[in-house]
Fold each of these.
Amino acid sequence: MTESAFIHRFEPATRAGSPPLLLLHGTGGDENDLLGLGKMISPGSALLSPRGRVLEHGMPRFFRRLAEGVFDEADVRRRAHELGDFVSEARQRYGIGAPVAVGFSNGANIAAALLLLEPDVLAGAILLRAMVPLSDAPTADLAGKPILLLSGQGDPIVPAGNSARLAALLSQAGASVTHRVLPAGHQLSQADVTLARDWIGNLEAKAA
């Protein structure tokens, strides 16, 4: 087992043409958390779902934080590179293409960090309730990379200005960003599922 190995679940694709998904859970979740969501938004996709390797009061996360909304940015960088290594190894092991990340909360934040630090690892991303992961983000080349950012209007954890800043940061790096603010809080709603499913459907249609 290599240093970059994560406890994870993998479910092979059952339909050709569906993009593989990298499922990244929120704080306190695990490798089983988002499998149902993955199947709802892209039935037939290969699903790669790792468990975060950082524990906060016994709850798995993908990186350390100093307080709510205050990240240990050195740890964000280290953990993003670890996750990138894991995805590269999993791609070889399971024979899948570059995945589209589907991240919720802490998982969305590590996906955003991965986009900025290792742009080639992901084919795109669905970021659910994400924040800017790095205050001094590197200049990444995300030319044309599709990203769906779904924020909650009443989210007590992610300030509206922060998610707007993330959308701008990714757009400036060249990504094709769709940012929608939903009448929701931090938890996911049916609207998130519907928008994510339609967005993936459009990706598939363009790739076909």
Amino acid sequence: MSSLRPTLLLGLLALTACSNRLDSSAVEAAIKADIERQGRRLTLREVRCPTNILRQAEAYFRCVGELEPEGTFPINVIQQDSQGNVTWEVPNSAALLNLVSVENEIQTGLAETFSKRAYVDCGSEMYRPNQAGDRFECQIVGGLTVAGDRLDSVLVRVTPEGDLEWQEQRQSVGTPDPSTQANAEAATTDGAASAAAPANSATVAGPAVAR
């Protein structure tokens, strides 16, 4: 059993205004455009950020994204300096999945279960809506051979509660690999994720886009 814990995806925004406060409107527009560009059929109704944020290195705050037609998710922003350069991060939430986070957690689960490293690719999009009953497949790049089976992909399912479960898709290839047979026999191939829980405390701030 493997838990898909949220990890954070960072985006860099640079603000060049003369004021000593961040331009919240610019931050909102830049983040909204970037998430839609990197998402799978994602349309955001809006991104809302606090106003009157002073430029201050290491200061942070939270913005909120709202999906169309529904669902909100946190966006955490940290100021890198007093010049308006910030990074923003979108964790897994009840409304939005960060597929980089999902890939990392599946890779960790496979390594812990089979003592073999594998690269997992869930596609070119970075985000997708977290919708109950949704299923999608992530590829195990180059495949992974364990206990006589070849693992080429992982099927990910969103439960009715909004959690994630994943299961390796196996194909028999012949003689088992003795070095991994014991691990494979003891392993549970399902992974349950609490990734759907929104971040308890996050922060957000940000200006124009610069990846």
